[in-house]
Amino acid sequence: GSPSSIPKSPCPCPAGGIGVAAVTAGPGVTNTVTAVKNAQLAESPLLLLGGAAATLQKGRGALQDIPQLPLFRTISKATFSVRAVRDIVPTLRQAIATAQSGTPGPVFVELPIDILYPFHVVQKEIAGSKAPRGLRGKVVQWYLQNYLRNLFAGAWDPRDMSPLPVKVPLATDQEV
Question: For 31, 34, 91, 112, which has the most beta carbons within 10 A of its beta carbon?
Answer without folding.
Answer: 112
